[in-house]
Every structure is written in C-alpha cells, then in structure tokens.
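Lab channel / #folding
Pinned by the channel admin:
"Please post every new chain as: sequence first, then the structure tokens as a reply. Keep commentary short and put observations after the output so the thread stays searchable."

First post following the new format, from NK:
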Amino acid sequence: MLNILESAYTSMALELAPETRHSAFVLINCDLGCKEEIISDLQKIGGVENARETFGAYDIVAEVHAGSESELREIITWRIRRLGRVRSTLTLKGIEGQSYR
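Reply from TO:
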C-alpha cells in the first residue's frame, strides 16, 4: 500500500504548480459493503480528482486538489468526512514548495 501511495504522490507532485494548487490524499475507512456508494459520492465532490478502493488498513483513497489551503480543508472536513457511512479518515497533505521536476 505504501508503495502505491508513494508512486501516486510522486506522479501528483510532478503535475502540480506548488504556488497555485494544494493537494492531499485522504485515506477513508467506511462501513462494510458501502465502498462503491462512497466512491460514487466522492466523485460528485468538486476537488476530488480520483477515488479508488484499496486493500489493507483503509478502504478507499481519494486524491483531492484545491486552489487554497482553506478550500482543501473545507472539502475534506465538511464534504468528505460528512459523507454517510464514512467511519474515519487520515489525510496525507502534500508539502508545498517541494518539486520533483
């Protein structure tokens, strides 16, 4: 799982302009049997650019981008965490100013 996240984060970092986009991966645990429903709901949230089912300690990983830190916080706190049947989340925030180009 860690290798997948490292790979995804590296590819995401290559595409971002650090001054204009804020990014995070949100690892999500949900109720049993509702992954597809939550992924469908995530895809309707502005700023969520990708959501996938995972194996391991977390059920879903969502890639989130926003134009500001406060917008990113708003998406994660008030939209993703408030989805029905989401039990817990862990946010991996991108380090602004880091570039792998």
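NK: The chain has a mean pLDDT of 85.
TO: also worth noting, Residues 2-93 form a domain with the Alpha-Beta Plaits fold (CATH 3.30.70.920).
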